[in-house]
Amino acid sequence: MSYPEPGLVDVRTLADHPLTEAGAAALRMVAPGAVTAGRFGLVEYWLTPRSPGAAPHHHQTFSESFYVLSGELTLYAGGRWQPYRPGDFALAHERGVHGFRNDSDEPASFLILFTPGIAREEFFAETAEMRRSGRRPGPEEMTAFYARHDQVMVEE
């Protein structure tokens, strides 16, 4: 039996790609778009109890899906915030307004899948650095940051 190309399997261990602490959150780029040839990106995300995540927003050029692994994750979908539990899944299509946070007294973990696999890891890395450093960019800098990463913030 022959195999077409045995080198076409990428393995990214937790030891080699650990969670990165970012204030009340921790995240791990499980499969960044650079590894998947832009097909998708996968992020593991943890939120401490009673912590903010992402305010309502949408994206023009990619979809974002959420799969709850543990705890209770509050998602903004359909114009309202609502709790979701392990095994629950939500898909925010392009231009679908969504957000997330942890309103519970327990940690929450979830996966974020985005398609196509744009360089979303840059957004998460910059956001994590702002949280770690405590730096609070002004409105003009945040507008440029969001525009650079196809994130359109909306009012609740």
From TrEMBL:
InterPro entries: Cupin_2, QDO-like, RmlC-like_jellyroll, RmlC_Cupin_sf. Residues 51-113 form the Cupin type-2 domain. PANTHER family: PUTATIVE (AFU_ORTHOLOGUE AFUA_8G07350)-RELATED. This is Cupin domain-containing protein.
